[in-house]
Design goal:
Blueprint (H helix, E strand, L loop, with lengths): L10 E2 L2 H10 L7 E5 L5 H7 L3 E6 L2 H10 L1 H5 L3 E5 L12 E5 L5 H8 L6 E7 H8 L7 H6 L4 E8 L4 E2 L6 E7 L9 H12 L6 H12 L19 H9 L1
Helix pairs in contact: 8-10
């Protein structure tokens, strides 16, 4: 079927990569996998060979295509297809999340996923986003730091544009997400507010930003001498965590 460039539709067609995604997710018969952005059903087809799938697709034409392609699996109850915006609905029950997601919704969809209990997620992201999510110690950013309070995320493999049709202009990355928080925070809501505030003032010295946030919240935070006169990108995020926790 014809893909829409205006919607940045790039379908993963490399069978080797498709199989590796399933292997990374350790998909087995007893699993119920949630897939967001089924597209033409390339990944869906591989998943259905191993497990039950719940798919969410927003594009009307794609939904029509999927209903025809997987008519038997739908009738058997092996494939449940939901025509909806994944960001606006409650997810049905699932224990694994495996998706080649639309890259433009990477951040909101990932943080929505954190609100659910699941065994494992394997997600295809744009490489730049994946690096920010998985390596905030190398690429300092609020998303990656906050994500560590929810999960452990690792890049498993870099995927070249040739694995997709049509070819995107960027490289992609397969990321594994486990519900194993790497950062222990006393109050996640307070921590998120603090991190977002500090990173919204990247050009300011971080000690000044901390003082400003403290006054706004009516709290006193001890600022280590070692971070004074530095910008947030120059500081280990674990130090920021300790400041808030203490």
């Amino acid at each position: 079927m014809k893909l829409k460039k205006s919607k940045a539709q790039h379908m993963l067609h490399d069978k080797r990569i498709l199989k590796k995604i399933l292997d990374y997710a350790e998909v087995k018969e007893s699993d119920t996998v949630l897939e967001v952005g089924c597209g033409t059903g390339n990944l869906t087809e591989f998943l259905l060979r191993r497990c039950r799938v719940v798919g969410i697709e927003i594009d009307r034409e794609m939904v029509k295509h999927l209903k025809i392609k997987f008519k038997r699996e739908i009738n058997q109850g092996r494939f449940k297809l939901i025509h909806a915006n994944a960001l606006k609905i409650e997810f049905p029950p699932f224990n694994k999340f495996v998706s080649n997601i639309p890259y433009k919704i990477s951040s909101p969809l990932t943080f929505k996923l954190f609100n659910y209990n699941f065994d494992l997620a394997v997600v295809m992201y744009q490489r730049e986003f994946a690096e920010r999510l998985c390596k905030p110690e190398i690429y300092p950013n609020k998303l990656g730091i906050i994500a560590k309070t929810y999960c452990k995320a690792d890049i498993l493999e870099i995927v070249k544009p040739s694995a997709f049709k049509p070819r995107p202009k960027v490289e992609s990355a397969i990321v594994r997400i486990k519900s194993e928080p790497e950062l222990d925070v006393k109050n996640r809501e307070v921590f998120e507010d603090f991190i977002k505030f500090i990173f919204s003032r990247r050009r300011k010295k971080v000690d000044k930003s901390i003082e400003e946030w403290s006054k706004m919240k009516g709290v006193e935070l001890e600022i280590p001498d070692g971070i004074k006169n530095k910008r947030v990108e120059e500081i280990d995020f674990r130090i920021l965590t300790d400041i808030v926790n203490n």
